[in-house]
Amino acid sequence: MRLRVITLLSVLFFLLLLQPVGAHADSTAPSPSPSAEPSPSAPLERPDGPYITVRLVDAAVDEPVVGVTLSVTAEDGTEVGSAETDAEGRIIVPIPALGSYTVALDEATLPEGIELNTNAEIVITARLNGANGGLFPIGVQEVVSVPFSDRLVTSLLSGIKFGLLVALAALGLSLIFGTTGLTNFAHGELITFGALATYVANRGLGLPVVLAGLLAVVVSAAFGWAQDRGLWRPLRRRGTGLIAMMIVSIGLSLLLRNLYQYTIGSSRKSLSQYVSQARNDYGFIKLADKEIAIMLVALVAIIVVCVVLMKTRLGKSMRAVSDNPALSASSGMQVDRVISSVWILGTALTGLSGVLLAVNSQINFLMGFKLLLLVFAGVTLGGLGTIWGALFGSMVIGIMVEVGPLFGVPSSIKEVGALVVLIIVLLVRPQGILGRRERVG
Amino acid sequence: MDAEREDTTTAGTAGTGTPSAFAARPDLSGVPAEPGVAKPDAIIVGDSITRQFGGLKAVDVDHIEIQRGVITALIGPNGAGKTTLFNLLTGFDVPATGAWSFNGSSLARVAPYKVARLGMVRTFQLTKVLAKLTVIENMRLGATGQRGEKFWLAAFPFLWRQQEHENTERADDLLTRFKLDEKREDFAGSLSGGQRKLLEMARALMVDPELIMLDEPMAGVNPALKQSLLGHVKSLRDEGRTVLFVEHDMDMVRDISDWVIVMAQGKIVAEGTPEAVMTNPAVIDAYLGAHHDTDLTEIDEKEIEAEAMAEIQSEIESDQKDHR
Amino acid sequence: MNATQTPVAATAPVTAKKTSRHATTSIVLGVLGLTLTVGITSPFAFLQANKALAEIDAAPGHYEGRMLAQVGRVLGVVGTVYLVVWLVLGFTVGIGGVDMVEVFRTALNQAFGPNAIVYALAAIGLNIHFGYTGLLNFGQAGFMAVGAYGLAVSVVTWGLPFWLGVVVALLAPVLLAILLGLPTLRLRADYLAIATIATAEILRLVFGAVETKDVFGGSNGLNGYVGPFQDANIFRAWDVFTTGALAFEEVDLGIVSFSKRDLWSMLVGWIVVALACLVVWALMRSPWGRVLRSIREDEEAVRSLGKNVFAYKMQSLILGGIFGGMAGLFLALKQASVVPSDYSTNMTFLAFTALLIGGAARVAGPVIGAMILWFLISGLGSFFGQATSGADPLLPSWVMDNTQASLVRFIITGLGLMLLMIFRPQGIFGDRREIAIDGR
Ligand SMILES: Nc1ncnc2c1ncn2[C@@H]1O[C@H](COP(=O)(O)OP(=O)(O)OP(=O)(O)O)[C@@H](O)[C@H]1O
Ligand SMILES: [Mg+2]
């Protein structure tokens, strides 16, 4: 079959096969690219105004550490810039005004075999109108060789944490998919919404992070309810098909994502509290307090939702509606109300996942969209529409992403491992791990 | 039990069917009426076919044979596993265990499209018309061995136009037979439920199958048309085709079938000529009910209605409570 | 208590009285005229509304939707006035520093320029997948990426001759289609969507990874392979022939102007697009195309009639994938560089938008859709860009600054895609007869 296609194309494309005659210089004319990812970079020549400079030194051998990404964040949480350390282990980031800035080190970019022995973040107060900071050694220590088991435990832990965050969002997606059949491509934007709402409540209204997070979950739920009322329910009434609705959600995703960027810009922001926390050593494992809190909150939320779904009437009617909406309606159930509750619950969970992500790291208009594929992968891996499948699949995905680099997945693209697993699983079990085959005829 | 069965068999052989059909009918009178009995000239032979859904054994057939050149009816209560058996036989579903053959060649793990090409075509209980194609295009799709369906020939109409023309003629004949000729240029999606059943049957005939398997072909078809359809089904047999159909309408079963297989809870519980089966106490218990000749009494209806109403009411109430 | 209305119940198409299609169309065009298309669709809304009213009055028992039609007519009139005012003001004095001629020029330029060709080709591929076969391929960017990288890697990294690079670029999508199709074509539509989107992302990540920098050039991508393509530039050759020197000045064609480099890309590109349309047209009117369309409707039914559905889906995936690969190849040629971030999921979604604007399952749909998409995107971009720049911008900077202005077009694209899918899922040029049975 392949060969034949080629023959066709060689007929089609004789035009492109014009003989090459030498080469000449090309002037590149980049097209307006629709993807608007931020690409933070900073020049290494010293700027005129105030700037922050940091030098990263390996304390053990007193040598600079090269190629590590550091980012500088202002007091209000806006990212001022970030840069990779040069051959001297130095970065220079210009700052808009004097004041106090946080410099954060991206631990993932540290070279092999080197581990941070202090905090990943330091605070620098800029007083001079020129260089601020000077030689500032963030303590870096060469680790002779971390035993594989230790690295595995560390990766497993961050995998579990990540998996739980994905699971929250996946649960939301799965609930909505299960009851309405909607494959929601705007789901990632619901995650971002939770994080953004936290940021606004925290930085804008000045609430403490915990309260801001709670408020964000409530606002997310309201957003979900409003979305269902204002958009999806009318569409269901009109009898819009599932694929059409899926495409509507793609439009919504594009709309929301660009609206987010419109309002907050493309830089990364951080919350006012819990930004930098040192990891406590619990003997076998090392965890920061906020990491423990994040995992606990996620776990409790998941358990509560599962209990609600298994035990209460609401859960039962949700499952009934997802099985057969027409039948549920004709047996007197208020399908629209059930679906409304599902949207509220689903978006609250998804929002919570955004809140926890914001606490865990930083806030950016793309964060949800970047996570979306992994959420989808988790849900699909378990089998579309099954709650347990979504949980299970998300944990697998989370752990795969974090543990993969230990087994040879390049760490700069560690998501690839999880996605490859997804495709392999679908090859073996097309209905997902816990899914059921559909009835024919 | 044995004596009874023999009784009914002998009673059943006398005076069934129309005379014309009778003439073409191969003789099944000698075949004993017991589940899984061997037929003189079987087109399908299946052994220990099972299919489970979770804990439910939807199909659990020890032995089944379908006689060539006759009309066999497959009956049984809802959820007996008839559709599932259809799916298994035609390759749309894969059984847990079992072997079966069509015309002597094994069909285990053979893809559905290959099964159809071998001459065994089925229709679906929930009709599957191609909504955004016109009726005539639905029909044309059914024809087999089309040259124009090959990728490399498709772009050159002169290679397939003649064949397409012949197929269209055949399709028009069938459409007239099934009273769909007026709908020829309409989208199939605009047809009514009954018309869809007709279209699906006609389309299956375009494949020119040796064995045609109809899953509830008459559900939703009006009585007058039903009569003429019965005639068509019989004429299929007279053309030498084998028909296997699922039906809940006992009059129809009695009228046209030469042989009846009864399923309940996945198993074949009885077989025989229509008369034999309908007087079989096991069948009456499992499927037909004691009053299968009479209408349901008024009282029954009211009782059922009242029960249903009460149930709905309680659902609504508790549902409202939930949301307060 | 209308809560008991089910989503399923709404699909029954045949009712005694139906809403006049012209009425619906007019209201959609009217709304679009006042929002997205800055009045361009409004005159048509007016015409459609008049048709609807005539139709309804002719057979009052048959149709409803008088109200709709009347609203559509009013919207149409308002929009038309708005359009006229816009145009007159815009072309004569400009509006608050916005040069409308410039906006129109930019829009037209892009509607016929190389970008529209890239999206037209990608959308033609998607049309074969989604429009005709019903395959939800959300990984078209992946096909484009292997096409583009096929050329760049063979020429730059492996040092193969240019023509061999083109061959590789056309083979790579075939290979990808087979690899992708084997596991996923048996899956349900929504699984397929996720598997394809995942594959495209994997490809993009791998192409841009630090670890594969030696082959794919990392996040900066590859360039320096396009020489032979521009050497064959007939406009340039003409230049050399007549004046004896190379000149890369703009060629002015009245309102629009293109560089000679772009003109050459466009000449080749539009010929390829035309040929692609011809192929699609020839294939889709054949019995082969009928099988594809049947698979879109119900693949089990097709299976039950003895067709090897898997093989047809694979053929469709390969054919559409090749067009996707051509889109990538063309992008690589016209842009003279291959950058991984170009091949993001966003690109697939925009190609889908182009397809849906023009109408799926129409031969010319994707082409017209791509042109309209680029007309709107660049027109809006130019308008808001001008409106937010200069000493005294039309829009004060607290409303919108220049960076934000570049986002407005995507916000509007998202909104437009939603409205399109809701009110006119068959696209602007879709078949009216099919709406009635659009149960999906
Ligand atoms: N895909 C499936 N998953 C789970 N259970 C199934 C599936 N398909 C069928 N079943 C179950 O198998 C049993 C047999 O179903 P089947 O459709 O074969 O019944 P039937 O005899 O055709 O009934 P009817 O006369 O109502 O059409 C039923 O209990 C049904 O619920
Ligand atoms: Mg059945």
Structural features, described:
The complex is a heterotrimer of chains A (441), B (324) and C (440). Chain A has 441 residues and is an alpha+beta fold. Chain A is 52% helix and 12% strand. Chain A folds into two domains: 51-142, Immunoglobulin-like (Sandwich); 148-273 and 285-428, ABC transporter involved in vitamin B12 uptake, BtuC (Orthogonal Bundle), CATH 1.10.3470. In chain A, a hairpin with a 5-residue loop joins β4 (69-73) and β5. Chain B is an alpha/beta fold. Helix content of chain B is 42%, strand content 19%. The longest helix of chain B is centred in the C-terminal third of the chain and has 26 residues, at 298-323. By secondary structure, chain C is mainly alpha-helical. In chain C, the strands form three sheets. Chain C has a two-stranded parallel sheet. In chain C, strands 3-6 form a two-stranded antiparallel ribbon. A two-stranded antiparallel ribbon of chain C has the order 4-5. Chain C is globular, with a radius of gyration of 24 Å. The model of chain C is unreliable at 1-15 and 435-440 (pLDDT under 50). The A-B interface holds A 4, 312-314, 317, 331-334, 337, 341, 440-441 and B 83, 86-87, 92-93, 122, 124-126, 151-152, 215, 311-313, 315-316, 318-320, 322-323. The complex binds adenosine-5'-triphosphate (ATP) and magnesium ion. Magnesium ion (MG) is lined by residues 82-83, 125 of chain B.
